[in-house]
Amino acid sequence: MAKVAIMGFGTVGSGVYEIIKTNAAKLQQNADDTVELKYILDIRDFPDHPQKELFTKDFNDILNDEEVTVVAEVMGGLHPAYEFTKSLLLQGKSVVTSNKELVATYGTELLEIAREKNVNYMFEASVGGGIPVIRPMHQCLTANNITKIAGILNGTTNYILYQMIANGKDFETALKNAQDNGYAERNPAADIEGHDACRKIAILASLASRKAVDYNDIPTEGIVNITLDDVKYADKLNSVIKLIGYAEFIGDKVYSIVAPMLIKKSDPLSGVNDVFNAIKVTGDCVGDVMFYGAGAGKLPTASAVVADIVDSVKHKVRSKKFTWYKIDTDIMADKDAKKFAYFVRTNDTLENAKKVFGEICVADSIVDGETAFVTQPLTASEVEAKSKELKNTLKYIRVLD
Amino acid sequence: MAKVAIMGFGTVGSGVYEIIKTNAAKLQQNADDTVELKYILDIRDFPDHPQKELFTKDFNDILNDEEVTVVAEVMGGLHPAYEFTKSLLLQGKSVVTSNKELVATYGTELLEIAREKNVNYMFEASVGGGIPVIRPMHQCLTANNITKIAGILNGTTNYILYQMIANGKDFETALKNAQDNGYAERNPAADIEGHDACRKIAILASLASRKAVDYNDIPTEGIVNITLDDVKYADKLNSVIKLIGYAEFIGDKVYSIVAPMLIKKSDPLSGVNDVFNAIKVTGDCVGDVMFYGAGAGKLPTASAVVADIVDSVKHKVRSKKFTWYKIDTDIMADKDAKKFAYFVRTNDTLENAKKVFGEICVADSIVDGETAFVTQPLTASEVEAKSKELKNTLKYIRVLD
Known about the structure:
Largest interface: A-B, 50 and 50 residues
Order of helices and strands of chain A: EHHEEHEHEHEHEHHHHHEEEEHEHEEHE
CATH class of the largest domain in chain A: Alpha Beta
Strand content of chain A: 15-25%
CATH superfamily of the largest domain in chain A: Dihydrodipicolinate Reductase, domain 2
Radius of gyration of chain A: 23 Å
Oligomer: homodimer
CATH architecture of the largest domain in chain A: 2-Layer Sandwich
């Protein structure tokens, strides 16, 4: 019998509780063992909970209980989640988590401790919510060299952009809708400025390269500057705008960026609507594969946490698959290592645009006096320099290749 | 050092060879062992192959070599693939395969032998080519009850339908294009009549239910009766037509069917174009997840075969995950156990259509004298009976819910 604990009884924590209770037989079958919940840690009181005897406010109850072998950390935030996780791993317990902030910030150190102690630190739920992505990506990795990852990793921004695309709402209205529907926080900065997506692509890039990618090294641009006109231009170009977490593996280096991009409608990422997430992984043998599903929500996220619990119960000895290492040299590729085609809007003439950018694909104009077009693939420095040569470049947005 | 053999040096077999050669370091890392190819079985001669010493025409070389622990059966067809696989499993060797016909026909027996001998019989490549679907579906299964599976499982038919949808080609022209591009066989019956998709959904339904689903028990309709007008009507209804392998788990029973269906454009399956495949799995906790990628082709399929080889090398003792059991009672649900909405075309009047079908959603007419509409959800018997009440029902096609 495996005894487990849940730390944090919020949305995800209560989902984990629910699944452990309702799908007990299934978990037992898959874990080759019964999974019994022994503690729920939360600073709040739950006097009406049917199993109120499980609750504790004292972390040491879990830490010092030798029977507890697997702990689900679903409290979120960096502190005390970091201290708790570190103590548990040092004590020889496996920890599974949905906490992408923690994994992206302290994952390298925590994975090192897990390796030393030969226990698991698993985080399937930290990227893409309930979508199985970390294990399938690893499965692709078995026979492939992963060359690229492009993901719609944040449900809030995808909802906002979808409202703009499908219902012609402007950014502010779409954001307000998202807030009214509970898809966006009152302070939506972490989502709309791209920081949440940045942490997730850092985790995926680390896993694929097995090298610690620091999310602070990933240039991150949100969707706050995307207007309804941009969305309409994209449509004229048979594309949609999505916030993409992108990583490409170029030689020994990792190129990574978070930015809104034009996605051609023939790309399966273009059809990922509403709050859904999807991660497209490109392997040298398999080509493009994509994993799609609910990127957040109580039961979807909890279902990924429980899958990690089951895996940890089953494999008492550490799985070597899901890890990465700290590298002392700089592993990040230069910002010019990757060329994108760019969608450009300018108040300059088409003639000048062609003079500066050479061969371009012109879009039907939506705004009087504007010229809009897609360039050939350019480095970041090239597009920056060229756009300064035009009289008035309003903006440029990458096109996903 | 693990010694492996390849049986069949056709498209997939040569892909497996290529990946084992080029990604040897990666395989070693993931298998915790070196993977060395010892034999390639083929009845043909390959005198110019750089490793011609590996080739044999005698199956007994592989069967009787105790060093060989994992064999990739990528020869296709039922015989002698069945006899070879059975002998190898009985000899205590693991077998991995891309042969969906064999898995769908003899899988139940072969899995039983694998269980008895405590070796692996793995078939990730048999469904969805290179797409990781069997392992991720199992991962979903860990914490979820799978309620439904809907898949675009055949690249040939998807290519044909996509040509009709995107380029307005009629069925015959689209089929000819598919043949000219090597996407369809000269005798395309197995694809366009739905038999290939049927075998694949039988495998997925068996895995999800852990009960042997006989593909002969799955009503199977191909796309040969789908016309360009049907496709145009679907577009008017904001939908596309796709060939769907469908399974739903209702109580103890399995409801399964292969048929062309209208897919709403908001459904992620609708954006699966060209020869690509995708499988949408619905779990009671996770909701809808979808796995997308190349459903066929040399390296994609080989990449899934190699992933199974690595898994079998790593887990010398049988994995219990991917199996099902023969059930002596009838496990198939009645054809009326599941209701679909139907798209109906008739030469009768709108008035009569409403009289017979009640509340309907009418489509703009494309053909003079026709009434076209979508019904409320009906059983197969209901739609059959009601359509006979109309003066002249041309056809009805299910709508995926």
